[in-house]
Amino acid sequence: MLFCLTGSTRHPALQPRDMNPYAHNIRRLMARNGMTLRALVGASGLHERTVKAALNGAGKPHARTLHRLAVGLGVSADELFQFPAAARVSGFNRHTNGVVDAIVARNPKRFVDWTESDFEELYSHFGTGGALTTDGAERVIAAIDEKRAVHRKVALLLESSQSELLTGFVDLLYQRIAVTHVQCDVR
Fold first, then answer.
1. Helix (H) or strand (E) holding 18
2. Would you give the distance in Å from CA 157 to the centre of its chain?
3. Lower CB count within 10 Å: N or C terminus of the chain?
């Protein structure tokens, strides 16, 4: 089962049956941001027909399309595939990881371009025996910054002549992970 990859927040039995996860999350994020269809079209730079297809969960959108939708919504592309119940957990995480607030308050410029998804990822971490320590939070922040740098490079490549090559490479890596995970479940 490909939905049950390690670290995935999706579970097929818990997904809305009438909508792809990205379609549900696009609608949720539009509502959260008070965005209309026209506003998302403008912010994403996509054609209205393309945005409507994504909102309806029609077909399999290209990675470039999902990236542009995420940019238009002000989130990482990962958030488009987040299981909706995971968002409810985030409130708990924010209240239990106070050290994060202290780090952000000490160096707000470091977090200027972070998305809500980045903060949710940071708040969701915990250390051995409880909330993150300052050192632990700094390590998680560094890892998230590194991941963000990779995402920026991928976004640039998706807009370049190397898009097909990158998409094929990512598909190949994903299949290797998915096959390994399925084989592990069989044992």
1. none
2. 18
3. C
Return the structure tokens found at 141.
């922040």
The CA–CA distances, whole Å, from 119 to 49, 61, 75, 90, 124 equal: 32, 26, 11, 9, 8
Where helices occur in 61-162 by DSSP H, the ranges are: 63-73, 84-96, 98-106, 116-124, 134-158
Decide if 99 contacts 131 (C-beta within 8 A).
yes
pLDDT digits (tens, 9 = 90+) for 170-186: 889 888 887 654 455 44
Contact 144, 110 (CB under 8 A): no
Report how far residue 58's alpha carbon sits from residue 105's, in angstroms, rounded to the nearest whole number: 42
Q: Please state, in angstroms and rounded to a whole number, the distance separating the CA atoms of residues 76 and 113.
A: 11
Q: How far apart are CA 35 and CA 38, in angstroms?
A: 8
Average confidence (pLDDT) over 60-69: 87
pLDDT given at position 91 = 52
The predicted pLDDT at position 29 comes to 84
**Averaged pLDDT, 74-98:** 66
> How much is the average pLDDT of 80-100?
63
